[in-house]
Target: LL-diaminopimelate aminotransferase
Amino acid sequence: MFQINENYQKLPGSYLFSTIAKKVAAYSSANPDKSIIRLGIGDVTQPIAPAIIEAMHKAVDEMGHAETFHGYAPDLGYEFLRKAIVENDYKARGCEIEADEIFVSDGAKSDSGNIQEIFSENNRIAVCDPVYPVYVDSNVMAGRTGTYDPKTEMWSNVIYMPCTAENNFVPEFPKETPDMIYLCLPNNPTGTTITKSQLQEWVDYANKVGAVIIYDGAYEAYISESDVAHSIYECKGAQTCAIELKSFSKNAGFTGVRLGYTVVPKALKCNGVSLHDMWARRHGTKFNGAPYIVQRAGEAVYSEAGKAQLKDQVAYYMKNAATIKAGLQKAGYTVFGGVNAPYIWLKTPDQMTSWEFFDYLLENANVVGTPGSGFGPSGEGYFRLTAFGSYENTVAALERIKNL
Ligand SMILES: *Cc1c(COP(=O)(O)O)cnc(C)c1O
Model:
């Protein structure tokens, strides 16, 4: 008789977005005359920029002719894309990353879930709390997290690093020493980030204790402050302790197109074993390359026209973020984030729980957001609004909130 991977049985149901959808559906069927504005889910809404669409069209046409047809892509990505990535995301920022240290993939969610495969089952992970759920869940599936306590909503073998207003959303070095540290900066869900010198302290810490940092830079394009690192490799010593994950989803609207990459420096070793070689082996065995058409689209992200158009797109969302932030502050809320990330993280008023505030906002303002407690116990008492809506809807939502 076969057996299943019992670790999957340990996973608590992920009810966050389905509960939100159910509550919104129930409210709207009871109140069909109300128009609901959704500032909840972290998906982009602006269309793909023209320079990218043009590149995709061209690549589609190439696929229709024998002379320019492309079959399987190289496992680790086309040279044209890896070069564009290295030149623009690394060399231009003074980071010494080479094209053969870039592994092109179908997105950062898969990479952040898959990367744990090359590490021992006995490693102890540390995560920020609140957190992007993939880091923890993928480690649960691998049997690395111990047992789940529904009361505390915590795993016995995970080190949690609370990020709250009390510590300015800057994770502190944990008391117990972790082996793998997940950092997402700028952060989803809190919309906050840390300075380059604070990140340098984490790099120094990881090198000192022999931990690896899994650095999720999905929101890098939204950084507006000059003292924030665009890559962890801007920090000295990061090449020997950090893996960086990047995505084209939030900077270029590729949530439905699918493209990302992971950087594993050759200098990253564990007892002489190269993690670069291990990830190359894993990638080559289990992944057959991101589509040619999509990699051409990715290349266009770095073209002059592409860069200009995407700068406008990011500015559009960040104008929404500023609108939400200023509007909420005016209405008396305590607000965080929204400066280097498209998320606003607000303190719920009057000691409301995250879900109480969700219901209050849905019923009284017809605005949908995301309860902070859905991202971890330290998210309780907070609430996330996203800047990914249209400007018109964002303004309208804030008018409603101000009038409460
Ligand atoms: C949106 C997001 C990603 C991007 O995932 P893709 O699979 O590339 O779309 C990665 N990490 C975080 C924290 C995100 O919010």
Notes: The chain has a mean pLDDT of 97. Residues 53-304 form a domain with the Aspartate Aminotransferase; domain 2 fold (CATH 3.40.640.10).
